[in-house]
């Protein structure tokens, strides 16, 4: 069954006249009759019956007409949806990002993007880099913003920015007045860690292995604010990225002397077909990233 046959059938069914339908469709009457005859042969039933000098729909034609109208209507809506998706000013973007980025760049990027593209809708997901990459590979995300050091095959990456880990201590801690700290100075402190799988935890584990540390883990949590709450209460120290716009009472962040930089980038599935809105958002992210370096 061809798509055009449904269009021809609908026209004949509504006009109940081959000649009038042929004129409306800008085809010859014999060509229209052949198309309807072929459709009837495929279905194995007559769709029309003669009545006097004209035709009317048969009981089969009545039943088929209902479905043909629905199918053609759905196709029209599908075409409109595709045209809308081709327009970068419309569409929906499913974005995943690390929790730490939700406290820094992502809100600013989205605010600026929505000012230029107010009709674009976002579906947002937070998680660890490991979780986000799995969701991306499963097709649940259009793109994700996470740690490039945890990249996998089948993904295409573009770097956005870099950040590093800081030591977070209560302002009453003896080390709080230091301008910089070494791993040796904090090695014997109780550590408050982000849960396994998160980018900051992966970095912490890499540091432990690289420098042969034996840290004492006092507490683990998936929530950054919970960890900082425990830091403020003097229950330990934390190694977390910098949060420029986040102020927590009685907590101070101090840079580490040892290099702990990580690269944050955009990941998409290689060969994936994305909406124009999604590609426009990626370009916006890259422009924002470039502005940070200027």
From TrEMBL:
Pfam families: HTH_1 (PF00126), LysR_substrate (PF03466). GO terms for molecular function: DNA binding; DNA-binding transcription factor activity. The keyword Ubl conjugation does not apply. It comes from Terribacillus aidingensis. This is DNA-binding transcriptional regulator, LysR family. GO terms for cellular component: cytosol. Residues 1-58 form the HTH lysR-type domain. Belongs to the LysR transcriptional regulatory family. Keywords: DNA-binding, Transcription, Transcription regulation. InterPro entries: HTH-type_LysR_regulators (IPR050950), LysR_HTH_N (IPR000847), LysR_subst-bd (IPR005119), WH-like_DNA-bd_sf (IPR036388), WH_DNA-bd_sf (IPR036390). PANTHER family: HTH-TYPE TRANSCRIPTIONAL REGULATOR BSDA (PTHR30419:SF28), HTH-TYPE TRANSCRIPTIONAL REGULATOR YBHD (PTHR30419). Gene3D superfamilies: 3.40.190.290, Winged helix-like DNA-binding domain superfamily/Winged helix DNA-binding domain. SUPFAM superfamilies: Periplasmic binding protein-like II (SSF53850), Winged helix' DNA-binding domain (SSF46785).
